Amino acid sequence: MRTILAHAGDGKFPTTPVVVAVMKNIGFLNFGHWSAAPQSQVQTASDALLQSIDLAVAAEEVGADGAYFRVHHFAQQLASPFPLLAAIGAKTSRIEIGTGVIDMRYENPLYMTEDAGAADLIAGGRLQLGISRGSPEQVIDGFRYFGYEPPEGDHAEMARQHTAIFLQQLEGKGFAQPNPRPMFPNPPGLLRLEPHSPGLRDRIWWGAGSRATAVWTAEQGMNLMSSTLLTEDTGVPFHQLQAEQIQMFRDAWTAAGHQREPRVSVSRSIFPIVSSMDRAYFGDESRSQDQVGNLEGGRARFGKTYAGEIDQLVKDLAEDEAIAAADTVLIAVPNQLGVDYNTQIIENIVRYVAPELGWR
To answer: What are the record's GO terms for cellular component (predicted)?
Structure first.
């Protein structure tokens, strides 16, 4: 649910507009780094995977609503997401499980349909898959090593083509001609990919880095996942530019005539300062500001980190227009600090910050 406007008055003659705070889904976003550095509590790939499962279980126990994972290839970070999502689905019962995001330039959309369907069924229909064109990678054109060659060198278009096939397959319609002499009996008609998970098509999100891409996302009938950077800069604060992106998405969604209500998530780095350890790690971030830089040859605006004691943190977050416009807030966690510390961050947000903002 998202923030809405109401009016104070007697019901006949509305007067002052009032912001009515409504509940939000609160999840964490884990980039899944591991490092052999002495200060890292995530030393190996095994640590990253197993601790990701443990963090999802712990986050569910402290009242969070979502466990989301970044996907990066050729890096010491989480990559193949579906075994991890399935494992989390088997060990939890309520929390949403998702990605933020899968780079569709690397994906076989038919195989991905099978993997996603299986993981979603194991989780009881709790998958929320964020997909996108991806971000700058560790290697040059890494998707070519996976066997994909973009038409006319347009890798963004290739990602969209893979996405179109993926979304079509998630609808569960038959398309393949059955063998007249199969090993096992076939149902009548054309065959679809199995296992099929009904409803998963409505739980696909696109990671949009610009306002124009947000409009395209709405036209495709996908939910909007917006991160802490936008690949454009108009000179206004990041949260206002992102709020504009969200509004353009919602307007385009309405114009497209989709029947369901879309969902919108934003990602934020949020660190409540409630202990000396918090202050040692993140006290300096209380002075964080937006940053503007170059990304892939163009200007980009990066959102600031939110860190501070509870009263100040609540005040700062209440002024974030994009958070107000979204129904889901994903908290980027520093996973190398370990499960216990990250669980405490999530719990502090759920217990102390969220009620003050009307998210709970």
So the answer is: cytosol
204 in any annotated domain: yes
For the chain, 360 residues long, give each residue's pLDDT as a single digit of tens.
444 444 444 444 344 434 445 689 999 999 999 999 999 999 999 999 999 999 999 999 999 999 999 999 999 999 999 999 999 999 999 999 999 999 999 999 999 999 999 999 999 999 999 999 987 789 999 999 999 999 888 999 999 999 999 999 999 999 999 999 999 999 999 999 999 999 999 999 999 999 999 999 999 999 999 988 898 889 999 999 999 999 999 999 999 999 999 999 999 999 999 999 999 999 998 888 878 877 666 778 888 999 999 999 999 999 999 999 999 999 999 999 999 999 999 999 999 999 999 999
For residue 278, the domain's CATH number is: 3.20.20.30
pTM for the whole structure: 0.92
Total of domains in the chain: 1
- Judge contact between 292 and 301, C-beta under 8 A: yes
The 10 Å Cβ neighbour count of residue 295 is 16
> In this structure, which amino acid lies at residue 157?
E
Gap between the Cα atoms of 241 and 247, Å rounded: 10
Residue 1 in domain: no
Residue 305 neighbours by CB distance under 10 Å: 19
Supply the range of the domain harboring residue 253: 24-174+189-357
